[in-house]
Amino acid sequence: MAGGKETGRQKMVGMMYLVLTALLALNVSSTVLDKFAFINESLERANAETSERNARTIAGMKSAAKDKGNRTDDLKVVADAEALRAKTLQLLADMEVYKDTFVEITGGFLEGHEGDKRFIMGKTDYDKVGNYMMPVEENGEGHGENMKELLNGYAEEIQALLKKNGADDQKLKQYHKIALDAEEDPIYSKDENQKGKKWSQLAFDGSPTHAALATVSEFQANVLSFETSALDFLVRRVGLKDITFDQIKPVIMPESRYVAAGTKYKADMFIAASASGLNDKLVMTYNGTDAPVVGGVGKVEFTASPGNYDKEGNAKKQIIASIKVPQGGGTDTTFIDTIDYYVVRPVIQIQSQSVNALYYNCGNALDVQVPALGTSYNPNFTAQGGDAIKGSQTGQVTLVPRGKKLTLTVSSNGNVIGTREFGVRGIPAPDIKVFTSGGEVNMKEGISSREPELFLRAIPDESFAQFLPNDAKFRIAEAEVTLVSGGLGRGSQRTGEKINLRGMKGRKGDQLVIEIKKVQRQNFRKQVEDFKKFTRFINLSLK
Hints:
Largest sheet: 5 strands, mixed
Number of helices: 9
Radius of gyration: 35 Å
Number of strands: 26
Distance between the termini: 50 Å
Strand order of the largest sheet: 2-9-8-4-5
Helix content: 25-40%
Structural class: alpha+beta
């Protein structure tokens, strides 16, 4: 939905609607079509809840305006909110008329289920709703154009109402057209198959009745989402979201509750309900030390000292925070709270930037940090069982394993900090796929006996390619193609990734046997190596 905030249920229903729409394109069974009835019912229920919530919001606005003395400006905003509610309810009612019409023109309700949209005669009717809504120039009845005008006109009315109430251009852009022709839609405008289509075609062409009902309910949800967002803006115009705190205490917001011994503890200390008029009069301290106050926020900074570490390597400590607030008449009020924090024993942190395990003869990038050393950290790396290549940024290193395991030693300014042992896994074999000039070959269907050439591609494992793209570059260096007719080989040729079939003179019913003899890989250093122990046989039928 566009515009305002969606509930978790609305998000879930919207996602299910998208999935079922995709399934609909596959001519799915009537059992799956029944799911659209569930989607429509869930959308209608969610829409009803949203509508009730928006009504309560307006009631709250009226109450807030009354509490503030029914000021003229506040009452004008409330009147605009009520006008918006009236427009929304009218549009929702107009959309319900469309849904009733869809049911009527596709046969009405099943006997004994009058009024229940789950049970309709036109469940599997793919034509009548589309014909009813399609443009006249597409031999339809053209009723979709009126719905489009209603939806987009609603968005324009919200823009005008909020602009009158001081909304900026950025806010107004949220209330864009709801019903878009293909050329206006950011997705369909790039799809050649949808080029030139009207909105009603995109929304209703070929839709069974339940899907059409769910589509209209989705548009109603968009309308309610716009209303929710607009009301949220108007609410702030009468101060409904002003918060009055009945409890005030000092708050320390640290960069981290855990800090290594010898490093600085940094945090912001402030009053949770701080008022801008008090910023220059607040007095804040932590453990008896004055905290500079900037913009109502006290700045806390000190060097953490070691403590009695527990078995987890943490030492619990406390800060006593004090904030003095002037109350007028020469009196002050002091708020005090105790905040816990933990000093952490310094440790080495090694994080992988690419993979969770190292791949043999590949460039595995790691990030090795020692937070306790702070800016004095100046690492050097050595590796046993492979190479360690230092990166351009502090802590970055690329490991290239040469055996079954690799041990990394980390030093800083000549001092050994520690070691880490890694297991090494082999590179996953690529998948071999066959293509013609028209695309990938369907191995079950085979190829035409008149096909002039084939192309072989070595496709890397998806996870490996994602983690180490610079090491996942494979090519087929050598292959042998044999034409088999009547169970006998009739000729063969050695080739690489491109196979010339013109001279083989294959006929319908023959077989092509492709043996992949050698695959090569280019690593992150752009060095080419043979992918050892790799053979594949591919059989293709000629038709």
